[in-house]
Sequence to fold (173 residues):
Amino acid sequence: MIPTIDKEFETITKKIDDGRKDEINGKNHIIYTSAKIGFGEVKYNEDSYFSVIKNFYPSKNIQNKGVAFNEGAPIGIWYYFDQSGKLTKEENTDENYEFTYQNIITYCELNKINLSKGYKDSGYQTKVLKLDYESRNAWQISHQITADQIQEIILDGKNGKEITRKTVPFINN
Fold:
């Protein structure tokens, strides 16, 4: 289940004072944040690997919005706006990734890597990131394999071939 967004201007739907407020609405967990630099809204759906992220200027006008893996990389088109609400940029975050986010989901399923659906407030959650690795686009999957170990896998963003795999200590602070 991949959430959809559009490039329409919007203003924040729920303003809170400095801090954070969590709201549960059916299968959705929405986190509203507030700070001097503006406002944020992240919507998780319990049936999805993805969340909708929206950031707002202090004026409450939209600054940017898009979809991202829960605990991870943006996917699809992200929209950016100036302070007056004018759309200034559309960024295709999947550009130059022939090995797609759908392929990442399949890879995780085949390799028994647990991708979290919805919002989780505790425990280590698998992270899926996009990065530049040795001058090429790559995916990084970090997942917990034991109570004190994380496995980091780097996959080529073009063909999905494994570039590197290493185990690092998990330090729970």
Helices lie at 101-110. Residues 42 and 53 are 5 Å apart (CA to CA). The longest strand covers residues 136-146. The radius of gyration is 17 Å.
